[in-house]
Amino acid sequence: MTDLVSQPAPDPAAEHAERVEHRWATFAVAIIVLLVAVATFAAFYHTAVPQARVETVNPRTLHLAGEFIESNLGSALDADGSVTVRVIGEQYSFTPSCILVPTDTPITFRMTSADVVHGFLVDGTNINLMLVPGYISSLGARFDAPGERLMPCHEFCGVGHEGMWARVRIVDKAAFVALATRRRRLSCVE
Amino acid sequence: MWNSKRLILAHFWFAFAGFGIALLLGEWQMFIRSPLAAWISDPDLYYRSVTAHGTTMAYVLPTLVAMGFGYFVTEQALKRPMIGLHWAWLGWGLAVLGTISAIVPVALGRASVLYTFYPPMVGNAFYYIGIVLVVLGSWIWVALMAVNLYRWKRDNPGAPVPFPMFATVAGAYLWGWTAVGAALELLFQIMPVALGWRDTIDAGLARVFFSWTLHAIVYFWLMPTYIAYYTIVPRAIGGRLFSDTMGRIAFALFLVAAMPIGIHHAFEDPQVGAGFKYLHSVFTGVVAIPTLLTVFTICASVEIAGRLRGGRGVLGWLKALPWLNPAMLGTALSFVMLGFGGAGGLINMSYQLDATIHNTQWVTGHFHLIFAGAIVIMYFVIAYDIWPHLTGRALGCFGLMRAQLWLWGIGMIVLTFPWHWVGILGMPRRMAFYDYTNPALASLAMPVIMSVIGGAILVVSGALLFLVLLRGQFAPRSEPEAYRFSVAVRPPHRVPAALNGMGLWVGLMIALTIVNYGFPIAHAIATPGTAVPAVMVGERP
């Protein structure tokens, strides 16, 4: 980089300084290349990528038609054995406010907002999504162990933001499947 | 030659006055949501406070410091009176007017939308008008920086532009362009609703626009700090700048690479596809390079000072450094915070790791450590360094300055390290209240109390800042010797055209912005049915 500049006849000290500077610049670039390479490998090999597709939905008619009507919210056991969880965030609660999911099962969260921007995370996991009205947020997940976790709204959504906490209850896979034979959509109420 | 002393002082005093008030608000917020306080009965008070704190600290403090310091550099580096003094006062006036216009509705509870706006929530129009006025005032500054550089180059054909001016103009252009994103969001999405002309907003598009501003604005905040690293610190501690060229390259790279990376703030958002998120993640990596170059150049410059002062051996030069000098102390503390903050930032920018900490207290901890810590501590150092040249009175109390800087560094670490920790535990940010009696949240109580203590230390440090500056105002008059910037080990005789002007870099900046933002913006505009009803904030029935 320093060869861009014309300077008077260089002395040995200057040459040494330039060499050290070059070495550092190369090292700095190498660090960044390595970091990007790790992320790229994870992205392409493990498909560890954020939501890939942009999907839209009309927040004004969520309750009238489509996958976010009230009777379709909650956890659904799909034909291939995976589970889809549909949730709406609105000022100032999630519906359902306690989500029931099985262990050791591929789970897809499909969520949207009925009013303003919300977000959520599930405590102790890397499940983390923004909900933007007009768009569907979707994320794959899998839980290893049964238990109950908190699921707060993590984006400022108005004066009641502090009260917007939901829960995720993780139950044994067999118990979940047994419940799912009785009802097509599940939440903690069951 | 000195016709802008009062102008520069007006910028710094207004910036610091806002800073002082916002600092107290910040500590109150820390306290009221900690286990030390009972439930806040009206959470809106908390969000008014957060809005005022964020608006002042993010838009007023750094903008006014960058403007004032920019005017200072213009006169001192170009060694001639600044062109456009009246325009500069107009810019200051707009910034003051805008700040008042923005803060009044916030105080009245009519604009609790936080400084990041969050459409489709919409507050009182005067809040947004105020922000626009501040930005307009700062754009006058951008234009004045450009005009002064242009005239100087015309009068000094072929001469190397003084490095402090080169860096300042780079910062000005970065701000001029990055502010366009938020301006588009305000003018085309939010303000038509706030003024009652429309009742829908495309929230996804607005978030993309805001991300355009959201990251490069941090580099705009950083500019005065980096300019101080390169052009003040080596001179203040008796050393030389290791490399003038590397400095120019670093600032040129900031200009190019700070812009097209903002979508890394939207990794978890649904309105941008995975491809552009990846692209922005990669470019966020690139922008770490000028910082790594800076760390090398400044450490080498400091080492020169240590050796000139008689330091020997591999580490002996460290001991020989003038540790009692506020510039030395401030830089060291700033570097410590920059190191930790930068390491945290590498996690935020990571395509995958970000999901673990996105929108948790980790993020609050991160940007306080970088901005309020590493960056703002150098604003203090800048003020201490140039104040005698502005007031014509010496700042004599070095002990107080050192105490102020130490407390700021320590306070910021006590504040932010626990924040990072509770963020990893999953504590969401921007809540007026947490139920620490919930067993799942009980472990957050102690770190949160530590943060409150950190904030209290910062309040003491803030008070000392005002004490130092006010005492300086009453010191006896003494004409300081001419101001000097750092001199490079080998001052440039001739600089290649690319590193003597901004044309190439501004061109690259705009081109990369179009490449990295063109499709996400066009896609969001073209996607039908994404205009959603606005939700008015603070309306009284």
What do you see in this structure?
The complex is a heterodimer of chains A (190) and B (541). With 190 residues, chain A is of the alpha+beta class. Helix content of chain A is 23%, strand content 30%. In chain A, strands 1, 2, 3, 4, 6 and 9 form a six-stranded mixed β-sheet that branches. Chain A has a three-stranded mixed β-sheet with strand order 5-11-10. The radius of gyration of chain A is 25 Å and the shape is elongated. Chain B has one domain: Cytochrome C Oxidase, Chain A (Up-down Bundle), CATH 1.20.210.10. In chain B, the strands form two sheets. In chain B, strands 1-4 form a two-stranded parallel ribbon. By secondary structure, chain B is mostly helical. The interface between A and B is large, with 70 and 81 residues.
Number of self-contained structural domains of chain A: 2
Query: What global shape of chain B is seen?
Result: globular
Number of strands of chain A: 11
The oligomeric state of the chains shown is heterodimer
Unreliable stretches covering 5 or more consecutive residues of chain A: none
Based on the structure given, which CATH architecture of chain B is correct?
A: Up-down Bundle
Compressed to H and E, one letter per element, the order of chain B equals HHHEHHEHHHHHHHHHHHHEE
Largest interface: A-B, 70 and 81 residues
The percent range for helix content of chain A is: 10-25%
Structural class computed from helices and strand pairing of chain A: alpha+beta
Q: Write down the Rg of chain B.
A: 23 Å
What CATH architecture of the largest domain in chain A do you see? Answer: Sandwich
- Enumerate how many helices of chain B there are, as a single number: 17
Look up the CATH topology of the largest domain in chain A: Immunoglobulin-like
Q: Give me the CATH superfamily of the largest domain in chain A.
A: Cupredoxins -  blue copper proteins
In CATH terms, the superfamily of chain B is Cytochrome c oxidase-like, subunit I domain
Across the major sheet of chain B, the strand order is 1-4
Q: What is the molecular shape of chain A?
A: elongated
